[in-house]
Amino acid sequence: MRIAVLALQGAFAEHRKMLCNLGIDSFEIRQRSDWDEHKDGLIIPGGESTTQLKLLKDLELLKPIQEDIRKGLPVFGTCAGLILLAKDVEGEDFERISTMDIHVKRNAYGRQMGSFYTEDNFQEIGKVPMTFIRAPYIMRGEPHVDILAETGGHIVAAQQGNQLVTSFHPELNDDPRIHQYFINMITKQ
Ligand code: GLN
Fold first, then answer.
1. Ligand 1 atom at minimum distance from 133 CA
2. Range of the domain at 17
3. Which of 37, 92, 107, 148 has CA atoms 20 to 30 A from the CA of 79?
4. How far is CA 162 from the centre of its chain?
5. 51 alpha carbon to ligand 1 midpoint, in Å?
6. HEC string of the chain?
């Protein structure tokens, strides 16, 4: 198995380290030609979604990524990655990758509570560490979206078929179970 990690900006190295610890091969997507390599899944890291979106467009990566996700390529988006995958972001009316039927609020915890750590339940896994950094949350999902985790009354992880998102950063803690969940999604496909 080989996982592509979008490496334009943000916490991509941490995702690769997590995959490496699980014995999974990965490579970085930095330009259009990288996308033509064989991959079994894609990780879109946290960082700054506006910067990542600009680079995805400039590098002509947005459309091919969007098409392959629509065709069923497994994808895991964390934080900014979640924002890029969401079909609707509150107050921002422009297209991103926009393949997942979720409605999202960016920087949802405001300045004071912008970054925090908690632990809460994740479906099938149990309690997991959750590190939030100027995070979004999911206000709601269409009925075919499975809610995988909530904390403080907000949805923070969800799945729609081949698409998995978390508004927190599982790559920043030592717990590999959410990455393992993504790998299991791929092997079950
Ligand atoms: N606030 C960032 C954004 O809107 C996301 C933060 C993160 O990925 N840690 O893109």
1. 9
2. 2-188
3. 37
4. 12
5. 10
6. CEEEEECCCCCHHHHHHHHHHCCCEEEEECCHHHHHCCCCEEEECCCCHHHHHHHHHHCCCHHHHHHHHHCCCCEEEECHHHHHHEEEECCECCCCCCCEEEEEECCCCCCCCCEEEEEEEECCCEEEEEEEECCCEEEEECCCCEEEEEECCEEEEEEECCEEEECCCHHHCCCCHHHHHHHHHHHHC
CATH number assigned to the domain comprising residue 10: 3.40.50.880
- Kindly report, residue by residue over 59-118, the tens digit of the pLDDT: 999 999 999 999 999 999 999 999 999 999 999 999 999 999 999 999 998 866 678 999
Q: How far does the centroid of ligand 1 lie from the alpha carbon of residue 35, in Å?
A: 24
Residue 9 contacts residue 55 (beta carbons within 8 Å): yes
Q: What are 53-73's pLDDT values in tens digits? A: 999 999 999 999 999 999 999
- Whose CA is closest to atom 8 on ligand 1? 46
Q: How many domains does the chain have?
A: 1
pTM of the model: 0.97
Name every protein residue with a CB atom under 6 angstroms from any ligand 1 atom: 46-49, 79-80, 83, 106-107, 133-135
